[in-house]
Design a protein that fits this description.
405 residues, alpha/beta, Rossmann fold, TIM Barrel, eight-stranded mixed barrel
Length: 405
């Protein structure tokens, strides 16, 4: 944001301690935020929200206050459709702060972060630097989700030469060497009228209409062909492709996976088949049989979004996974979140004991990178290194890549 925009932000500080109120106002003023109002409890703050002639852009709110505490105030703010940013401030322990943060986020509040007392100006400044109007944030992150019709989906599946189905690739970086050694394949839909659509526009439709296997097979075939094209250009990358775990219960699935690599001329060891940990196997015996066959052929098997489902230990015990991908929820910001860090450390230790490669998803800052490197993880996949990108951009990115900055 520009300096003029910073000075024009309207901020409300809510805290029952006058010392904290005055300190926070002084810190904000020093940082260039001049339009600041205060409230000594949630009721007063709520009244200011309702009566304000111009809406507040940002609220800095304590959690533990008399009359109306910060938790109740957040609920009222959410009910009133507050669109500004919010920073939580409290003397409670870190786990309470994180729970409050998650609660506010679940209520669709635009939470910038949670910071403990006593207030640290540098941490407040860092969170304020993340602020942008919620409408702008939603526009920036928005990806059209209007579903295509079943007929359109079937046409695109039956006509792969139309190239409506696009693949983008997110690099996976080997932590010790800093080299890009692989990519995860992600699907997009280039609709002739609606532009490029995210997976939310067509994956649910494919699942409801039993077209998910046909769609996934097309994604896989394109990914294998791209891997072959890279090889011809002297680029060796391990390519990951996402599958429903229940695809592995189809007897013809393994034949298709194997025959495609043979037709295109790609070594199965260059391919990793990812399954999401939250999915439950409908036919465990058939799934295990085909997964074992995949491993015998040297395909990699990855359990994705680890830590977010209920079947982790059962699946790890039963299935010969070669890679564990730790969900971003336990990676991003874990250096400053004791709960997330504990789960991250336990997941890393578990994967090491099972002799699995460890991929940390969602690394978005240098702190995230340094932590997973310290813990001995193998690979990083996240915005700190690179976002998903089409092949042309990927090649340019790899040519310019000099390691993490």
């Amino acid at each position: 944001m520009t300096t003029e925009n910073v000075k024009s932000l309207k901020i409300l500080v809510v805290d029952d301690e006058s010392f904290v109120l005055n300190l926070t106002v002084r810190v904000l003023n020093k940082l260039g935020y001049d339009n600041v109002e205060t409230a000594n409890n949630g009721n007063v703050a709520l009244g200011k929200l309702i009566s304000a002639e111009t809406e507040f852009d940002l609220i800095i709110c304590d959690l533990n206050m008399p009359e109306m505490d910060g938790v109740a105030f957040m609920r009222h703010a959410a009910d009133g459709d507050f669109k500004g940013g919010m920073i939580l401030l409290s003397g409670e322990d870190e786990r309470m702060l994180q729970t409050a943060y998650q609660l506010a986020s679940a209520q669709n509040l635009h939470v910038l972060g949670a910071i403990p007392k006593p207030l640290k100006p540098d941490l407040l400044e860092e969170l304020l630097g993340k602020y942008e109007p919620k409408a702008a944030a939603e526009k920036r992150h928005f990806m059209p989700q209007a579903e295509i019709s079943e007929e359109e989906l079937q046409h695109a599946i039956d006509n792969p030469e139309s190239d409506e189905l696009l693949l983008v690739y997110q690099p996976k970086v080997h932590i010790q060497s800093g080299e890009i050694t692989g990519v995860e394949t992600l699907a997009r839909w280039k609709h002739p009228e609606r532009g490029v659509l995210g997976p939310g526009a067509f994956i649910p439709l494919a699942e409801r209409t039993d077209k998910i296997d046909a769609l996934t097979n097309q994604i896989y075939r394109k990914a294998v062909q791209q891997t072959s094209d890279w090889m011809l250009d002297g680029i060796v990358l391990r390519t990951s492709v996402n599958f429903s775990i229940n695809s592995f219960s189809d007897p013809g699935f393994s034949d298709f996976i194997i025959s495609t690599t043979e037709e295109v001329g790609v070594n199965p060891a260059q391919l990793i088949l990812e399954v999401t940990e939250t999915q439950v196997m409908k036919n465990a015996v058939d799934c295990l049989e085909i997964m074992m066959r995949m491993r015998l052929k040297k395909f990699g098997l990855s359990i994705d979004d680890f830590g977010t489902g209920n079947s982790s230990m059962t699946q790890l015990k039963s299935i010969p996974f070669t890679e564990l991908k730790i969900d971003r929820e336990f990676v991003y910001g874990a250096a400053n979140n004791a709960g997330a860090r504990a789960i991250l450390e336990a997941s890393v230790a578990l994967a090491k004991n099972l002799q699995m490669d460890i991929v940390c998803e969602g690394a978005e800052t240098r702190e995230d990178w340094d932590l997973v490197e310290q813990l001995g993880c193998d690979y990083v996949q996240g915005f700190y290194c690179a976002r998903p990108m089409p092949n042309e951009e990927l090649l340019e990115f790899m040519a310019a890549w000099n390691g993490p900055h």
